[in-house]
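Q: Give me the 3D complex with zinc ion.
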Amino acid sequence: MRAYLVALTALAALSTACGDAAPAARETAPPAAPSPTPSPGGRALAGKIVVIDPGHNGGNASHPEEINRQVDVITGRKACNTTGTQTDDGYQEHAFTWDVAGRLKPVLERMGAKVVLTRPDDKGVGPCVTERAAIGNEARADAVLSIHADGAVPDGHGFHVIMPGLLPGHNDDVVKPSRRLGRAVRDAYRAGTGLPYSNYRGEDGLQTRTDLGGLNLSKRPAVFIECGNMRNPGDAAKLSDPAFRRRIAASLADGIKKFLNR
Ligand code: ZN
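A: Here is the predicted complex, encoded as structure tokens.
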């Protein structure tokens, strides 16, 4: 009986694939793109808004006057944006963050989330860190994830997640949820990529900072992740590998999902 039902279900699926389904049914069908690990919770992030901030931008290096403009980040004044780092082979951080963001966005969307990116492509200049934070605030994001890779000493390796420190009167409401987001992203990234915690910064893969405009100015739960050290040969080889970046995106989605579904 069970085998018969399975066969019937398969037949029904075939007929849908052949285009026999009524248009209304087709509109309510799940997206056709295959999901490597279908979520048991279905559209677990329905109604949630996630802002992904791919660090830096491809046009920054050729527009120093624009990105070096000083902006107020509450605890000081900093450059509007920076060029980011690169591997010894010349793989640029802005290209890495853009690639990971492009992989992460559809994974979150398949879970039902509305996803907003802070820049539309990898050819532009900026936006300033102040504008990046404002995009998360205006979207009323449930979670903001800023994606980076580090340019530290070659012996340094591993990843770390950066969380906002308390700035009384500015981010009182989001420090605690940002820490929860940070721990969720750290745990998922460790489990999903196998990369170790940074051996040169933070503790247990976590660091708190009050000098980053993207965090200081966020009124929504926000963290940065330094996905690895581009100046370390081992990390650089992984970050340069498209298959590994797919794992990064899946891990980040998992962390965000765990935070939003807690
Ligand atoms: Zn960066």
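A quick observation: Strands lie at 49-54, 70-72, 77-79, 114-117, 143-150, 160-164, 206-209, 222-229.
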